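A.,

Following up on our hallway conversation. Structure tokens first:
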């Protein structure tokens, strides 16, 4: 491993250049006593102007405290939150520079403009609003041209144009003017520097101070100043290239990179956390250099950058580098543990196997065998990593094996075995379905070749040493244990163990073969054998198994943790590195088992960047690097850069509620957290839009939401970036959102609290009104009932009083008749008075019964009245032996008060009594019921009829009927029938 710069000079270095940006790996590869380091293409995302829907040219980039990215686009300021692009209109519709200050305000410089972006508390726009500072310069004799840089330091803001530097502080602007022009501006460890081509460097700290000895940079066009060691800077200029300035002396860096920087017009740069540097040019993309200026990588449009014109490089909070280009934007991940070698490096097709031998990397693919010579690439003046095909591109190579005995490579391509040294290829023999090649570590110089039908052994002269043609299985893996036993895995025939002493008796080879099955594995699932610490481990569809010598069988292997012994885990690949860590592909995912003092620690988060089913081979090297053969090229994994392997590491990022809209239209919140919201009930349909400011593979971010107060559980994880809620009841609510990234790390939760007011008819004042109305209604009903009861009570009292008077009169008559009996000795007269007493007593009894019935409230119904009428008529007519017909309804659905009941009863009774006692009739017909919403009472008899006009009758009964009919408003008719008899008819509107 490189521990110092001095150490590096004693090492042979080589480089692998990637298409987008080259990733420095601090490890070294040890092969044939060589120490080498490799580079490959880091993850990269490109954004075209169709993606962000604006102009192609971008100039500067920054990030606010919440993680949202802002880009100075030639037409506006762009905002990107990981899910959506938005635009912010600025003065003159031109933005060239942008920066954030300590208060999280954003300052923007443009063409003829300078200002800031801010979001007020009441602003409901999703993007900040632009406020111009140009009016503050109206009384100054200075013109504003192109503002190329914005810098912030403490509470100061600086805007640089070539003819002036503007210092903004506490609402005031001070102007610094150059002697000729300010070429560039820099913010280096909180120092604001200006380069003046004809004078050197200046520092601005409320005034313009010349930096001593910087006049050595006169006429050198200083374009980039970056921190180096404490008190010194790395400077890139357009005349000499790279140098180190410590405030006193300049140390020129001798490097081929200088020619590139000068020729291609170096324009911008940043220092990476690993101590290396990126420099962007206007003509040929980016170069990556170390502290000594040695070229590590170059990335341009040839390697996949959208444009060779690099305007700005920005390192975000997640150690991603954003690149503002003359045509679009790019994001690269220089700190990622993953990088790639693929068709950008002339490595096409699916990579099936990998081997490293000396200074060569070999890749077996479905389109042939490819070789990358690292030393040749290193010796190129401008390296461009390219694999060299060793066979015709139509060849298919499926197995590689280092043959360390002769420092060669063995390869199986198109069913032919080859020996390879550097780029020299020698054909050994052609076979049929050659599947595997394996050098023996026990029997040195020998190697094994397995095909569909043969097991073969070759010696150090590459001569066939032994063949067993009865081994007709579809083999997929072969390992040699430290004790010399061979283990072979097959597609569908289990696993085979060949005893280590088989070399001693090849004639009895079959007697050394033992066959095993995994008890719980599916019959149609392959069994693969892996070499872990010199012992065979079997991977199956039911977890890991190991060999138990005592029972001579395969048993479930718990040495690697319960996760790997899980019968639900299907294990495809296992590879152990030099430190004893094991890399695994299982269950459509990838894991690493980290070797610890006791057992292994299971980890998988960092490896989730690998697509599930693409890895065909895992290759570990003594350096610690891990290479994976995939259908998209070679994946290089550097575990030293994987922070997820630290059990204490937690990814920190945030989800954000970005918009809240009512009924999907009206914006009521654009991410502000410092106010509460009360919504009218008719606005109880809300749409929440959200995002996560995490920029590594944002397309794989999933979200989970919950409306607290409305939902009990979190939603399922989805890629949706908005959620609609309808018909939210009144109440207090908190909307919550959280995100899960490609590593399954869960973000901080963001919230939005609000209240839905009740509809007006469920407000407190409405309920108060309801109480008053209901109370008044109940009181009114109570009063009405009391009044009705009092009225009924008075009516009953009056009825009882009237009947009492009548009963009293009757009783008085009885008393008089009794006295008359005592005074009249005539027996006949006495008999008459006795009869009168009897009649009067019956009359009194009847009146008393009427009193009791009239004042009984339980009889206040039509059913009781009609029933009483029916009984009275039938009893009376039957006692008189009069034939009768009653047509009386059983009930009438109309109100009936006590007074109406009393009058109807007495009218009915009087009519029936007249018909029974005075008409001399032998037939009577009575009808009592409703006819067209009117109550109709008819009493018809066949008696003697009326002997004179009705108005000449003034009997007590007739008079009573007329008076009562008049009191209840009834119409009354009395007449004789044509066939004789009398007919009463009374109708009453109900």
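Then the amino acids I'd put at each of the 990 positions:
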């Amino acid at each position: 491993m490189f521990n110092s710069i001095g150490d590096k000079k004693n090492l042979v270095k080589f480089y692998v250049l990637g298409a987008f940006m080259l990733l420095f790996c601090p490890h070294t590869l040890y092969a044939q006593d060589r120490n080498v380091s490799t580079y490959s293409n880091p993850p990269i995302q490109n954004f075209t102007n169709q993606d962000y829907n604006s102009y192609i040219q971008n100039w500067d980039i920054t990030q606010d405290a919440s993680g949202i990215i802002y880009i100075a686009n030639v037409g506006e300021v762009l905002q990107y939150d990981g899910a959506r692009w938005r635009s912010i209109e600025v003065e003159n519709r031109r933005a060239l520079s942008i920066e954030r200050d300590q208060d999280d305000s954003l300052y923007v410089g443009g063409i003829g403009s300078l200002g800031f972006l801010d979001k007020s508390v009441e602003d409901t726009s999703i993007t900040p609003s632009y406020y111009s500072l140009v009016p503050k310069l109206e009384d100054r004799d200075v013109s504003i041209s192109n503002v190329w840089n914005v810098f912030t330091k403490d509470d100061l803001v600086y805007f640089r144009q070539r003819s002036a530097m503007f210092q903004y502080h506490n609402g005031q602007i001070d102007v610094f003017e150059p002697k000729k022009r300010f070429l560039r501006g820099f913010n280096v460890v909180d120092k604001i520097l200006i380069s003046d081509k004809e004078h050197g460097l200046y520092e601005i700290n409320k005034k313009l101070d010349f930096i001593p000895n910087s006049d050595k940079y006169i006429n050198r066009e200083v374009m980039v100043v970056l921190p180096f060691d404490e008190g010194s800077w790395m400077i890139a200029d357009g005349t000499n290239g790279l140098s180190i300035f410590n405030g006193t002396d300049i140390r020129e860096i001798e490097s081929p990179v200088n020619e590139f920087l000068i020729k291609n017009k170096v324009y911008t740069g940043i220092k990476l956390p690993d101590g290396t540097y990126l420099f962007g040019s206007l003509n040929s993309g980016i170069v990556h250099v170390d502290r000594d200026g040695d070229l590590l990588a170059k990335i341009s449009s040839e390697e996949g950058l959208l444009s060779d014109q690099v305007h700005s490089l920005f390192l975000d909070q997640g150690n991603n580098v954003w690149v503002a280009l003359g045509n679009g934007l790019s994001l690269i991940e220089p700190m990622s543990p993953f990088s790639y070698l693929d068709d950008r490096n002339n490595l096409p097709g699916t990579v099936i196997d990998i081997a490293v031998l000396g200074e060569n990397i070999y890749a077996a693919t479905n389109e042939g065998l490819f070789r990358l010579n690292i030393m040749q690439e290193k010796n190129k003046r401008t390296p461009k990593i390219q694999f060299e095909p060793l066979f015709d591109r139509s060849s298919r190579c499926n197995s590689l094996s280092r043959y360390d005995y002769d420092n060669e490579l063995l390869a199986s391509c198109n069913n032919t075995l080859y020996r390879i040294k550097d780029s020299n290829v020698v054909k050994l023999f052609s076979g049929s379905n050659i599947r595997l090649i394996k050098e023996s570590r026990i029997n040195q110089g020998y190697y094994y070749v397995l095909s569909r039908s043969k097991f073969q052994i070759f010696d150090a002269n590459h001569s066939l040493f032994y063949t067993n043609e009865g081994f007709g299985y579809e083999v997929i893996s072969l390992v040699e244990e430290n004790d010399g036993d061979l283990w072979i895995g097959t597609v569908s025939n289990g696993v085979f163990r060949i005893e280590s002493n088989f070399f001693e008796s090849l004639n009895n080879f079959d007697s050394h073969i033992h066959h095993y099955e995994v008890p719980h594995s599916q019959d149609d699932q392959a069994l693969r054998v892996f070499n872990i610490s010199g012992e065979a481990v079997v991977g199956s569809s039911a977890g890991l198994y190991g060999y138990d010598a005592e029972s001579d069988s395969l048993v479930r292997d718990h040495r690697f943790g319960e996760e790997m012994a899980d019968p639900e885990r299907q294990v495809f690949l296992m590879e152990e590195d030099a430190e004893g860590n094991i890399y695994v592909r299982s269950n459509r995912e990838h894991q690493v088992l980290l070797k610890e003092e006791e057992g292994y620690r299971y980890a998988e988060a960092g490896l989730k960047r690998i697509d599930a089913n693409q890895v065909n081979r895992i290759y570990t090297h003594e350096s610690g690097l891990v290479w994976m053969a995939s259908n998209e090229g070679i994946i290089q994994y550097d575990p030293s850069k994987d922070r997820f392997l630290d059990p204490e590491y937690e990814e920190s990022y945030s989800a954000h509620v970005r918009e809240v809209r009512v009924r999907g239209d009206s914006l009521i919140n654009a991410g502000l957290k410092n106010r509460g919201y009360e919504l009218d009930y008719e606005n109880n349909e809300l749409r929440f839009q959200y995002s996560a400011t995490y920029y590594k593979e944002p397309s794989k971010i999933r979200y989970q939401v919950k409306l607290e107060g409305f939902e009990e559980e979190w939603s399922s994880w989805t890629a949706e970036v908005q959620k609609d809620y309808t018909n939210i009841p009144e109440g207090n609510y908190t909307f919550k959102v959280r995100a899960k990234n490609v590593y399954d790390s869960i973000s901080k939760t963001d919230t939005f609290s609000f209240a839905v007011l009740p509809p007006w008819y469920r407000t407190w004042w409405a309920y108060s009104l309801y109480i008053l109305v209901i109370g008044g209604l109940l009181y009114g009903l109570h009063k009405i009932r009391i009044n009705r009861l009092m009225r009924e009570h008075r009516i009953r009292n009056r009825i009882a009083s009237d009947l009492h008077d009548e009963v009293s009169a009757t009783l008085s008559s009885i008393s008089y008749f009794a006295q008359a009996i005592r005074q009249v000795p005539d027996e006949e007269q006495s008999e008459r008075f006795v009869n009168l007493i009897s009649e009067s007593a019956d009359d009194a009894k009847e009146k008393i019964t009427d009193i009791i019935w009239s004042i009984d409230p339980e009889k206040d119904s039509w059913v009781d009245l009609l029933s009483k009428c029916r009984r009275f008529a039938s009893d009376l007519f039957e006692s008189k032996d009069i034939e009768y017909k009653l047509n009386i309804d059983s009930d009438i659905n109309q109100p009936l008060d006590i007074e109406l009941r009393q009058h109807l009863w007495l009218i009915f009774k009087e009519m029936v009594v007249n018909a029974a006692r005075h008409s001399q009739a032998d037939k009577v017909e009575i009808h009592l019921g409703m006819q067209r919403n009117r109550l109709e009472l008819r009493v018809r008899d066949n008696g003697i009829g009326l002997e004179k006009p009705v108005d000449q009758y003034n009997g007590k009964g007739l008079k009573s009927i007329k008076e009562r009919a008049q009191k209840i408003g009834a119409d009354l008719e009395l007449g004789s029938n044509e066939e004789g008899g009398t007919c009463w008819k009374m109708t009453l509107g109900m």
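The CA atoms of residues 213 and 248 lie 6 Å apart. Curious whether your intuition agrees with the design.

B.
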